[in-house]
Amino acid sequence: MSKKAKVTVIGSSSMDLVVTSNKRPGAGETVLGESFKTVPGGKGANQAVAAARLGAEVTMIGRVGDDHYGEIILNNFKQNGVNVDYVEPVTEMESGTAHIILAEGDNSIVVVKAANDEVTPAYVDQIVEVIKNSDIVLIQQEIPEETVEHVAALCSELGVPLMLNPAPARSVSDEVIEKAAYITPNEHEAKIIFDGASVENSLRKYPNKLFITEGKNGVRYYDGTEEILVPSYAVEAVDTTGAGDTFNAAFAVALAEGKSLQDSIKFANRAASLSVMKFGAQGGMPTRKEVEANL
Ligand code: RIB
C-alpha cells in the first residue's frame, strides 16, 4: 500500500434514530413501522469512520452533547480508530440527531444539529496545526455556513486541499467554490449550488474540481477535454444511508495517497457500493481489504 493518508474531517457527529416501515407516511398520516434502531451517524462522523476503516490516519474535529448519545458517539469513534482529541462535549447541550425513515427502498431524513452548531470558526481556530499537517481536509454542511467559509479560507492559505461535500444542500459562496480543491454534490445539491444550471454546464466550468455523484449511475466530471462518467458497481442495496459519506471518504483517502482521479473514483465507487449492503450509515462501511478484494 502507498503511504498512510492523513485525513482531517471537520463536521457533524450525530445519533441516527432509524425507523423501518413498509410505507412512508404522508402529511397528516400515521403508519405502523417494522423496527426502530439507534446507530451512530452524522455526515462528518460517517466520513471519519469510513476513512479510518480504509486505513487512513483520521482526526475528527467536531462537537457532541454532554449526554448519553455523546458518550456512544465518542466510543464509536475510538472503536474505529478515529482520533477524538478535538471532539469536545458541549455542556448543557444535546448531541445532534438524525431522524430517519427507511421505506420503499429509500430514506427520508430530518437532522437536528444541536451540538454540531458549536463547530464554530473560533473552535476550528484552535486546531490550525492539525489542518496544516493534513494531506486532505473533508467538510460537509451539517455545521454552520461560516465555519465552512472559514475552513475554506484557512485551507487555501495553508495550501491544504479541501474536499467539500455540500450536503445537505444549501447555497455555497463563490469564494468557497474557488478555494475548495474538490466539490462533490449529488445532482440535487448541484442544482441548488449552481442556480439550476445543467450538469454539463456546471461540470465544464470546474474541470477536475467538480464531481457530481449520480447514485447507481456513477460519478461525472469534466477533465478539461471531455466529460467522463465513472460507473458505479451494481449491488443489492439494503440501506443507502451513508453511501455518499463512504464515497467522499474513500475518494479523499485515495487522492491523498496519490492515486489518479479515475482510480480514486473507482476505489470510492467500490467502497460506496459495498457500504449499502448492510443496515445503518456505518454498518456496511468496508475495510481497505474488502474494497481491494472487490476492485
Ligand atoms: O449521510 C448520512 C447521514 O446523514 C446520516 O448518518 C444522518 O446522520 C444524516 O445526517
From TrEMBL:
Residues that, per the record, bind K(+): D239, T241, S275, K278, G280
EC class (word): transferase
Signal peptide positions on this chain: none
Catalyzed reactions per annotation: D-ribose + ATP = D-ribose 5-phosphate + ADP + H(+)
Principal subcellular localisation of the protein: cytoplasm
Swiss-Prot/TrEMBL keywords: ATP-binding, Carbohydrate metabolism, Cytoplasm, Kinase, Magnesium, Metal-binding, Nucleotide-binding, Potassium, Transferase
Active-site feature positions: D245
GO molecular function, one term: ribokinase activity
Localization: Cytoplasm
Annotated residues for binding of ATP: N186, T213, E214, G215, K216, N217, G218, G244, D245, N269
Cofactor note (record): Requires a divalent cation, most likely magnesium in vivo, as an electrophilic catalyst to aid phosphoryl group transfer. It is the chelate of the metal and the nucleotide that is the actual substrate.
Cofactors: Mg(2+)
Top-level taxon in the UniProt lineage: Bacteria
InterPro entries per record: Carboh/pur_kinase_PfkB_CS, PfkB_dom, Ribo/fructo_kinase, Ribokinase, Ribokinase-like
Activity regulation behaviour: Activated by a monovalent cation that binds near, but not in, the active site. The most likely occupant of the site in vivo is potassium. Ion binding induces a conformational change that may alter substrate affinity.
Pfam families, sorted: PfkB (PF00294)
Pathway where this protein functions: Carbohydrate metabolism; D-ribose degradation; D-ribose 5-phosphate from beta-D-ribopyranose: step 2/2
Function: Catalyzes the phosphorylation of ribose at O-5 in a reaction requiring ATP and magnesium. The resulting D-ribose-5-phosphate can then be used either for sythesis of nucleotides, histidine, and tryptophan, or as a component of the pentose phosphate pathway.
Subunit structure: Homodimer.
HAMAP family in alphabetical order: Ribokinase
Family listed: Belongs to the carbohydrate kinase PfkB family. Ribokinase subfamily. Belongs to the carbohydrate kinase pfkB family.
The protein's name in its UniProt record: Ribokinase
Organism listed in the record: Paenibacillus urinalis
